[in-house]
Amino acid sequence: MWGWIVALISGALMSIQGVFNTGLTKQTSLWVANSWVQGTALVVCLAAWLLRDRQPFYTLFQVDGKYLLLGGVIGAFITLTVILSMDKLGPAKSALIIVVSQLAVAYLIELFGLFGMEKVDFQWSKLLGMIVAVAGIMIFKW
Fold first, then answer.
1. Which tens digits make up the pLDDT trace of 62-115?
2. 55, 70, 73 from 60: Cα distances, Å
3. Where are the beta strands (DSSP E) in 22-133?
4. Domain edges within the chain
């Protein structure tokens, strides 16, 4: 149950953040807003690290699979693409498309066991669910 609650909060925060970031971009610029978002996230993470964690930063360079260090780079592009899509499509339509895209890519990652994730067997019900989700986008569009 806790996982569901956290996922619901995550989705809500993503939508709210997208709206905030889009509004900020309209009053500043795309890269100023993105820099602010990533910079303030860094400050919050460093504060949390000081208060709770204290794992040495050099452990970052000991991870297996150096591609795992690209999360922040991807995060900057996530912020960028959310801002652009919300500006062009509006919050509801862009959030719907983003979530379906996340679902499709996450399933492909599981299906093929990419990036060290455990491989799962193909299930027609999951493909059907994806088709229904895409149909939902079409219905929502109209």
1. 999 999 999 999 999 999 999 999 999 999 999 999 999 999 999 999 999 999
2. 10, 11, 15
3. none
4. 1-89, 91-142
Q: Is the pLDDT of residue 118 over 90?
A: yes
C-alpha distances in Å from residue 115, one per residue of 49, 64, 106, 110, 119: 26, 11, 11, 9, 10
| pTM attached to this predicted model | 0.84
Q: Which amino acid is at 58?
A: Y
Q: Which two tokens stand for residue 45?
A: 């993470």
The pLDDT tens digits for 20-70 are 999 999 999 999 999 999 999 999 999 999 999 889 999 999 999 999 999
- d(CA 20, CA 36) in angstroms, rounded, equals 12
